[in-house]
Amino acid sequence: MPRYDIPKAAPEPLRRVQLFVNSVDLSHGREWIADWLEREGIAATGAAVRRAQEVREALRELLYENNRQPGTADPYPVLEAAAEAARLSVDFRSGELVARASGVDGVLGRVLAVVQAAMRDGTFARLKACRNHDCRWAFYDYSKNRSASWCSMQLCGNRTKTRAYRRRHASRS
Fold it and tell me: The domain at 8-172 falls in which architecture?
């Protein structure tokens, strides 16, 4: 998987969610979810890949909403079903949410536990999906006022602004 997110890598443990969401390159049609599953110790069967993709895209919808953009689908039913399949429960010794399931459900549950903890502590709102709809790469917003919109100002930000400039000037002609 590429390391496009280095300048805007999320702090741990939210980095785990970022790497999961960035297991596909939407701009170039490259899919790395099988590699991600293998690194997590899960055999990348067709069913495991489909399940992980479904949860990944539901999380991407939340990240797109974090960037003040309207989502295209309701992510909550998918995420709630994944949490149920992961058998998420509270570990009262650590005070953390833990996945009791094994296999792909357990791995996805561990990702969801990080999401829930980040929502609780307020850091999840800084993990966003790029506003460039063709990209939608997950990045962490380190700006003081939490206003970052693109994964990279040099790439997506520049392309978006250039397109808008050309549209404005084409309409004047």
Answer: Orthogonal Bundle (1.10)
How far is Cα 38 from Cα 29, in angstroms, rounded to an integer? 20
Amino acid at 139: F
CA distance 62 to 92: 28
Q: Cα–chain-centroid distance for residue 71?
A: 13
* pTM of structure: 0.88
- Integer Cα distance of 2 and 19 in angstroms: 10
* In the chain, where the domains are located: 8-172
pLDDT at 68: 94
What sign does the dihedral 53-159-149-165 (CA atoms) show? negative
Query: What's the pLDDT band for 169 if we cut at 50, 70, 90?
Result: confident
Q: How far apart are CA 147 and CA 135, in angstroms?
A: 18
